[in-house]
Each structure stands twice: as C-alpha cells, then as structure tokens.
Specification:
heterodimer; A: 679 residues; alpha/beta; Rossmann fold; 3 domains; 7-stranded mixed sheet; 3-stranded antiparallel sheet; 13 strands; B: 75 residues; alpha+beta; SH3 type barrels; binds guanosine-5'-triphosphate; binds magnesium ion
C-alpha cells in the first residue's frame, strides 16, 4: 500500500546518479526539503504543505522513503528522520542525496531535545545549505515551562528560527516566511581552512564536508580519498561542543513537572510492571476487536445488513430475469429451523404474482433465513452462493471492512501513544536470542496491521541479517489484520483449546524459524540504540485520518484481488476444473491434513491472499480441530501478492523467492504434522 | 573513581561517560548527544541488561552488547 506513493522514489533510490527529476516538468521549482531527527513532526508539515497523505506515528522511523509533493511554486520533499547526514544506513543514504540536491532546507527540530537536534542543524549549516530552523513541539515547551530564546538561537546560528506546534497547526502561517527567508548560516572559522582544499576539488561545500567526514559514498562519486575516522571524530566533537554551548545559551528551565504519562512510560519498560501492562493492552485489544467488533458488529453488518438486506434485494432483483428456487427457513430463538418453505419460479420471480407476494410476506418475517439458488451457470458464477459479486460484497464490505477498520484503529492508537518503542525496549533482550534487537518489535507489531507495510519498515533495522530475519518472520508467521479478522471469526466457533493449540504452534514456528536463521546467516546483529519518544494520549485527529487512509488503501487493493481470485475460483468451478484440482490435491488435503477435499479451494484462494484462503473455510463444516489445522496451514501459507512484490523489492529476487517457496513447503509440512497429532 | 562498563551501572545513579566504542557507533552516540564526558542519569536497568539513560529530557535505550562497550564513572 505504502508502495503506491513512493514509486518514483524507489526508482530514484536505486539510481541516484540518474536524477530522473530533470525530466519532470516541475523540476524548475526550487526544492524544499524537510530534514530533521526522527519523530520530530516532519511528516505533519509535509501533509500540511503538500496535501499528500503520509503516515505520522509516535516512534522514530515512521518515514523510510522520500515522498514528493507540490506547495505553491515549490516542490517539497518528506524524508526519513536522521540524526546526522551521512550514509551509514538506508534511511541516511536516501536522505543524503536529496539533501545534497536541496535548494532550501526546512530543518524541523524537537524543542524539547535541542541538544540532540541542533547537532544536525549545525551540520546542515556547515554544509553551506540554505536553512530555516523550525522549533516544533512548542506547545510542550510552554506546558513544561521551559524557557527557550528563539531570537538568540537565530543569532547564534545565523539563520531564521520560527516556533510551531505541528499538531495544533500553530505557527504554520509563518511557513511561507520560513521558506522565503532560508539562508546560509554562520560558518565556524576553522571550518573554512579544513574544507578549503577539498572544496576546490569537488566544487560543493556540502559534498566537501561529507568527504572530510569520511563518507565513502560521496568520495567515490568524486573519485577522491575520503577523510579518516579520526578526522571525522575531530569534526564531530568540535561540532558537539559548539552545539552544547549554543544550547546552554538559549535554553533554561524553570520547573519540571512529573506526569502520569511519564510514569506509565517508565513502568512499561521494566518487565515486572511492563508485562502486566502488556497483558492489559492485549486484553483491551481482545475485548475491542475479538469480542465487540468480531462478534457483535460483524454479526449486525454481515447478517442483518449484508444477508438480510443487500443480498436479499440484489438476488430478488436478479430472480426477475432468470429461473430460481428459493427456500425460506423460519428459525426459532435458538437458531433451530422450525419451518421450511420452498418457492420455485420457473421463469421469473414476478411472473406468478400471488406466489411472489406469498414469498415476499414470508421471507420478510423477522426470523426468516432465505436461500436463493439459480439454475443458469453464468448467473450462478456471479450471484450464486459463492458468486463473485454477491460474495465480494458480503465478504469485503460487511465482514472484513468493520474488522479491518477496528484493527487499523487499534494500531494507530498504539502507534501514536509512544508505547511501541517502550515495548521494543522491554523485549530487547529476548529479541537478541533470535538474532534481532528490540527495534524489530516495531515492524513485527506493524505486521499485525499490514504485512506489506511492515516489510518496508524493516528498513529501520541496523543490518542486512536483521532485515532478513524480520522479513522472514513477517512473511511466514505474522497474520495481517484481514487475516486475523477471519481467524478471529473462525476461532470464536472453535473454542479455547483450538485457540491455544493455534497460538502455540505459530509461536513455536516463529522461534524455530528465527533461531535457525540466526544460527546460519552470516554476520552480526546490531545492538539496540533508540531514543524513546514521550508517552502521550493518542492524537485522535491523526488516529482517524490514518485509519481512514489505511482502510481506503486496503479496500482498494483487496477488492481488486478478491474479485480476481473469486472469478478465478468461480471459473474453475463452472468448468469443472475445481473438482479435478480438488481430486489431485486430495492426498494432501484428506490424508496428510485430514481435511475435506473441498478445503483445497481455500489454498487456491490463499495464493492470492491468505485471508481469502481463510475465508474459503467458512463454507465447509469443520470440527474445531480441523479448523485449527486449516488455520495453521493458511497462516503459514504464502503471503499476499502485494507483500510478495514488496519483499522482492526490499530483499532481492533470490531471498524473496526462497522465502516464498519456503512458505509453501513449511505450511503443508507443519499443518500436516499438527493434523497427524491432533486429528 | 572506579571505571566500569555501562552494563554494570546501577539504576538511579548519575554517571559520567568516560569512553565510547570506536567507529560508527561512536558517531551515532555523539549525534544523539552522548560524548565522552557527558553526564547522564541511569533511569532503568532491565533484567537482561538493557540500559535506559536519561539526558536532559531525553530517554535513550541501549542494548546490553552496546552497553558493555561503554565506560563510565560515578559522579
Ligand atoms: N505535542 C506535539 N506533538 C507533535 C508535534 N509535532 C509532531 N508531534 C507528534 O510527533 C510524532 C511524530 O510526528 P511525525 O510527523 O510522524 O514525525 P516525523 O519527523 O515525520 O518522524 P519520522 O518519519 O519517524 O522521522 C507524532 O506522534 C506527532 O503527533 C508538536 O508540535 N507537538
Ligand atoms: Mg515522517
């Protein structure tokens, strides 16, 4: 999903030398680039200025690629957060090129962390870039009675400084001023001497500085020797000292107040209190999603609205044009059939008016359950029990949509609260056992929302091997929200034992998979180094906006694929191929997995998207243990097409295909082993 | 004062960082604001050795393996 808006950029990332911007009609617009430390609010500014939606969350590393937009007569860019300009990791490499290319830099700063943030500011200034500093989070500064002197900061840095609060959009009227008045700041005197020689050779102060700081990427481009680590250290320490001096001059604090949220943040770090907090969070999630939405809301939308109204009227309408048989069951309070009546319309539903009226009266009784069946093959393909149109509508809109909204909403609340990085820290030591560090908790948690998006977020991990392990975990074992939705519904009928078996098997696979990879992948994993954002109550405005955009993206993609998948299965069905297919797969389905042979249909749909596969299980009558086996197999089965494509892009063909084939193999292997044991 | 590695720091002490690992790690720490000579507060020491430092208003989590490479003194 997130891939859509970053296509040009992905391309640019791979060929930074191509500079495809040159061909764009708007390339004459000056480039305004938002630069800043992670989690300082850059994306909020970008959303506001360009009108283009990008994700905003309360953890470092939300943005991992560059997005471009237009504001007035400027082209404007959102970038991943960085602590300094260099090319140590992917995010920095992406940001480096666009910074070197920038005409104007809007440097967004978290006013609460000046000492950390001004380091980057100072580096940008030393690069000779035109900069304006945006002191963001000023609402928090005022709340905490911290005193900051923006004018003095402006004097010391030699550039304009404006103050804003991006969540309240206050100070945004000064953004035009900020862009128009960006200028080159005060240059430290010694710098000129150091830079002089390199500058003559490469012609740009920014690149000269990069080379002196030992950036091999830039040095190679110019075919010059880069600075040694020692030289870099000298420059860095000088800069750090200068920054500390500046900050001590512009900031002093009146009082600091303890806060409930602060305490909560601290408590969620230590396992002693953190695990109970995690359990509370999960319980709330369970009651909200598993109980409230999956049972009550979905029951209402799927049965009352979907089946009761939409399907009923749609099919009655179709029955006007084609012969149909309709059976109406009257149910008692306990969902038992007390009376059944069959209506047969040989030509059209309204050709025999008295029968039609009888049907109408009967079928609209509040306890009636109506089943349409059509003789015509083509009509059945589109409107039958598993008809493409009727099923796409009921399944996507009335079953999946409410659940997916609930999941995205819950994820957005978590992302905004600042809880995720603390969970990451608490789990850090456990994660090192499987070759990751705590940071990997963030993409893995995001995977429960959307595996595709989470696979892109693995970029924030420190080494290739960590990215591989995390990607494999995501693609093998993490069910995305749509899949969880279907699982939740199926599991609720299978009981607690089934749930426990399911969860433990998936968990064991996770452990086996990651420890094996950890053992055999070469290289070393990095250690945790993360700064914790403040805890705070989620910004509801942002939560709703994010939920909306993600749901929209999901529906756009899922509808198409579901339609394609349903058409495919429908065609197989009508042509008799499905039966043939089921017969071929029968040994695996019936003997190895001990499922009815019709379950093979679920795997056909599952190749398109795992959640569709799981949905294919609805219509089979399975025992609870069969449900468990089927769900385990489908969960471990191939990831959806979109996330497969993203994986190829992120991890390369060889690795991507291996993981994909691996999912085929292990899904059936493990599903089968479980089947042999419990069935 | 005794010089020891950060994985052994006690919760609730004020410390001075005396030595950082070399290379990219050092650069990353300097950027975040931790240099040789910085005074920081140990906010939390999790079982397993992950350390949470506080510098001004900023909280920084450091994994056990990285902590072993950082030296400090108690102030
Ligand atoms: N209180 C307060 N919160 C803010 C302000 N600006 C941004 N935030 C919050 O800070 C968090 C980060 O915002 P983003 O726009 O995602 O930050 P970013 O700089 O794009 O972050 P990365 O993409 O991770 O580098 C969000 O939770 C925002 O709601 C502000 O002025 N005041
Ligand atoms: Mg961002």
């Amino acid at each position: 999903m997130s891939k859509v808006h970053s296509d040009i950029i992905e391309h640019n990332e791979k060929h930074p030398h191509l500079n495809i911007e040159k061909n764009n009609p708007d390339s004459k617009f000056p480039k305004v680039v938002l630069v800043g430390n992670p989690n300082v609010g850059k994306s909020l500014f970008f959303n506001y200025l360009s009108g283009v939606y990008v994700d905003v969350s309360n953890f470092p590393g939300t943005t991992v690629s560059i997005t471009k937009g237009i504001y007035k007569k400027y082209s404007i860019y959102d970038t991943p957060g960085i602590y300094g300009v260099s090319s140590f990791n992917d995010e920095e490499k992406v940001a480096l090129d666009i910074i070197l290319d920038a005409d104007i830099i809007l440097n967004v700063v978290n006013s609460l962390h000046l000492e950390r943030d001004i380091f980057l500011t100072q580096q940008l200034i030393e690069m000779g870039k035109k900069v304006t500093v945006i002191l963001n989070f000023f609402d928090e500064v005022e709340k905490r009675k911290i005193k900051i002197k923006p004018d003095r900061l402006s004097e010391l840095l030699g550039v304009e400084v404006i103050t804003t609060s991006a969540i309240k959009k206050s100070g945004f009227d000064r953004l035009d001023f900020a862009i128009e008045n960006a200028r080159i700041g005060n240059q430290p005197k010694e710098l000129h001497h150091i830079l002089h020689e390199t500058l003559n050779r490469v012609g740009s102060q920014a690149e000269a500085l990069m080379i002196l700081e030992g950036d091999t990427l830039v040095a190679e481009r110019h075919g010059v020797q880069c600075g040694s680590p020692d030289e870099r250290e000298i420059i860095y320490i000088e800069r750090r000292n200068r920054v500390n001096e500046i900050v001590s001059e512009v900031e002093y604090e009146d009082s600091s107040r303890g806060k409930f949220l602060n305490l909560l943040g601290r408590l969620s770090l230590n396992p002693l209190s953190g695990i109970p907090i995690l359990i509370i969070v999960l319980t709330i999630l369970y009651f909200f999603i598993g109980d409230f939405v999956a049972q009550r809301v979905v029951n209402f939308t799927e049965n009352t609205i979907g089946k009761g109204y939409v399907e009923y009227y749609m099919k009655s309408y179709i029955a006007k044009f084609t012969p149909s048989q309709i059976s109406v069951n009257l149910l008692n309070g306990g969902d038992k059939v007390i009376e059944t009546k069959n209506f047969i319309f040989d030509k059209s539903i309204d050709s025999d008016l008295s029968l039609y009226n009888e049907f109408k009266n009967y079928s609209r009784l509040p306890n009636a359950e109506v089943d349409f069946s059509f003789n015509n093959l083509l009509v059945r393909l589109f409107f039958g029990e598993f008809g493409i149109i009727s099923m796409t509508v009921t399944y996507l809109i009335f079953l999946l949509l409410p659940l997916v909204i609930a999941f995205y909403f819950a994820m957005a609340m978590l992302e905004d609260s600042g809880y995720l990085p603390r969970l990451a820290t608490m789990l850090d030591r456990v994660m090192t056992k499987i070759g990751l560090n705590g940071r990997a908790v963030i993409p893995i948690m995001l995977g429960f929302g959307c595996v595709t998006m989470a696979t892109i977020t693995t970029r924030l991990l420190g080494s290739e091997r960590e990215k591989t392990i995390a990607t494999a975990i995501l693609q093998f074992v993490i069910p995305c929200s749509a899949q969880l939705a279907v699982i939740a519904v199926l599991m609720s009928s299978a009981g607690i034992a089934a749930l426990l078996i399911y969860v433990s098997v998936i968990f064991i696979v996770l452990i086996l998979l990651s420890t094996t990879l950890n053992k055999f992948l070469p290289g070393e994993s990095t250690s945790l180094l993360i700064d914790l954002p403040m805890m705070r109550f989620p910004e509801l405005d942002n939560v709703f906006k994010k939920t909306f955009f993600r749901t929209y993206g999901f529906m756009k993609e899922a509808s198409l694929w579901f339609f394609v998948g349903a058409l495919f299965v429908g065609l197989l069905d009508v042509t008799g191929m499905l039966l043939l297919f089921q017969d071929i797969l029968a040994p695996i389905t019936t003997i190895w997995l001990k499922l009815p042979k019709e379950a093979a249909t679920a795997f056909v749909m599952g190749v398109v998207r795992r959640d569709f596969g799981a949905a294919g299980l609805f219509n089979l009558s399975l025992t609870s243990m069969q449900i468990t086996v089927a769900l385990i197999t489908i969960t471990l089965f191939v990831p959806c097409i979109a996330s497969f494509m993203v994986m190829l892009n992120e991890r390369g063909w060889k690795e991507g295909i291996s993981i994909w084939l691996g999912t085929w193999f292990f899904a059936f292997l493990i599903g089968g082993i479980v089947a042999q044991i419990i069935l | 004062m005794k010089n020891s590695t950060l994985d052994k720091v006690k919760k609730g002490t004020y410390i001075t960082i005396t030595n950082l690992p070399t290379g990219i790690l050092k650069v990353q720490l300097i950027r975040i604001g931790i240099t040789e000579g910085s005074k920081v507060f140990c906010l939390e020491r999790l079982p397993g050795g992950t350390i949470i430092l506080q510098k001004n208003r900023q909280e920084i989590a450091i994994g056990y393996n990285l902590a072993k490479e950082i030296n400090f003194q108690i102030v």
